[in-house]
Amino acid sequence: MRAAAGYAAASLVPVLVLGLFLVQGEQRDGHVRVLGRGTAQARMLQGTVLDPVLAGREVSSISSADAAQLRVLVDSAMRRKAVHFVAVRGVDGRVLWGEGPVERRLAAVDGPLFAAARAGRPGVGLTSDPSTPSGSVIHIVAPLPTPASGGAGEVLDVGVPYEDIAASVSRDLHRYYVGLSLALLALYLVQVGLAWSTMRRLRRSAAEDEHRARHDELTGLPNRRAFRELVDHMLQTGAPGTLVLADIEHVTEVNDTLGHDAGDELLRAAASRMRAALPPTTVVSRLAGDEFGLLLPETGTEALAVLDRVRAALGAELVLEGVPLVCEASWGVVPVSAGEGELGVLLRRADIALHEASRSTAHVVAWTEQLQTLTAEALGLQAELRRAIEEDELVLHYQPQVDLTTGATVGVEALVRWQHPQRGLLPPAAFLDAVEQSGTIGPFTSWVLRRAVRDCAAWRERGVDWQVSVNVSMRNLVGPALAEEVAALLAQHGVPADRLTLEITETALPADQGLLASAVAALAQLGVEMSIDDFGTGFTTFAQLRSLPVCEIKIDRSFVSGALADSEDRAIITSVVALARGLGRRVLAEGVETPDVDEWLRDIGCDRGQGYRWSKPVPWTELLDEPARQG
């Protein structure tokens, strides 16, 4: 408002300057207009009084009757105050004829007015005349051409009243000033209106730009920038609260299977449900991709109760492209006071909690000092892993896979260990999570494959024809170069393709069956076998089992180890064995610990077993020490 008022005041200045300029010009023109009207009145007197009587003759040649008629006409004009005096003079200044008190009013012969008439053009000016009310008279001296010479034989010297003409011109000026004032006022109002409209449009545009800069286009929620500002404001004011980061799950799968429009709709639905489940004063932001942020005024158990309400609203069934889905999320929770006044610290702690929530089954993790320590250790471990791969600190141990009918070892599973220079031999549980998180899964898997295929070639040279099983992640499996890498390794070491089995964990199988089928097609063409590991812990469908080119199903150890004591576990194993045999798949039971379990598995038709019943994981050379294991 102040800016608009300032602009309105500033706009008034050029309008006033323009008005002053026009008024000064019109005032100058007013004087010229007065003289012009006086000249026109003198010409009219000449045309209506003198010319009809003189009829082109010089005044000295007219008759007495014509002179009397001329005097009558001039007297009439003087009575009407159309003229003060009239005189006809010779070019030498002599008065040839005159009417009125001309003696003291005539133009001087050597003056500019008479000189102009003598030169053939009228001379006009204001001269003083005390006998008039204004004290001035419009004095016109004009040549009177004669037919004989065509030049100025005589000169008309006329005094025209100033008052009436000046008053008329003054009225015209007044009307002009009124019109000019109205026009300038209209111009000013138009300028102010345009300025007001422009400023409103600019303010609206600036507000829209600011809104776009601080809000997410897809969901309409505040974006990361606005969220950081709001969190920082809470920290600065010292108000208590809880910061929550949420990661919406399955967005990538929805994008891949149903399209990005469906993925966008999933994010919009998640945003709408979270917003609807919270009070208007609670901040909900979309930070990036599938990540959202909540800033709750509640703390402790109250904040968790609010979060439970949000999770319930978010988890309602959602139908996208005709497919019913459940919208789920992982949640990282941190008290605002835990940020210790630093925005970066608070957000890092929330990220740590969110990351842990994504890995856990609880889906909600609150930040703690212990979690911070574990995360710091994990980061250090990730950095060490790169060095371990480069410096060949990893080692492979192998656990035998036994044919339950013959008792002979027919294959081995490669299980990686890390010979850490300070911490000694580390089991997979100590570092596999770090492998997945550090981005070294590609080099890590390549190292395991190279070593496993090399070892397979080595024991084949010793006359042992074991298969070797290697675990691969879905990230490896769907990568573009895995089949080429496997083919090159097998060719390099002269190992038949059917001696290599790649295991993929059931819980890692993608929902998109076509994605998995295309990923393993090239490997199947090579003759490499595929196995579903940890079967029973995931959600493999019958359609997947029927169509996927897998040769083996590995029953998870959680069902096998206590099978003899748990009838439900036995029922599950028996069903899986029957299903696999019906589909023509081989069955391997993990976690076989005792001869009794071994015997029971053999009796129900299970093909192979793996576990401490036969051996713990050891270097492959140790497996050659017992002839029975060589098959």
Automatic annotation (TrEMBL):
Residues 378-631 form the EAL domain. The keyword Membrane applies. The lineage of its organism: Bacteria, Bacillati, Actinomycetota, Actinomycetes, Motilibacterales. The chain crosses the membrane at residues 176-196. Pfam families: EAL, GGDEF. PROSITE patterns: EAL, GGDEF. This is Diguanylate cyclase (GGDEF)-like protein. One of its GO terms (molecular function) is cyclic-guanylate-specific phosphodiesterase activity. Residues 239-370 form the GGDEF domain. PANTHER family: CYCLIC DI-GMP PHOSPHODIESTERASE PDEF, OXYGEN SENSOR PROTEIN DOSP. SUPFAM superfamilies: EAL domain-like, Nucleotide cyclase. Keywords: Membrane, Transmembrane, Transmembrane helix.
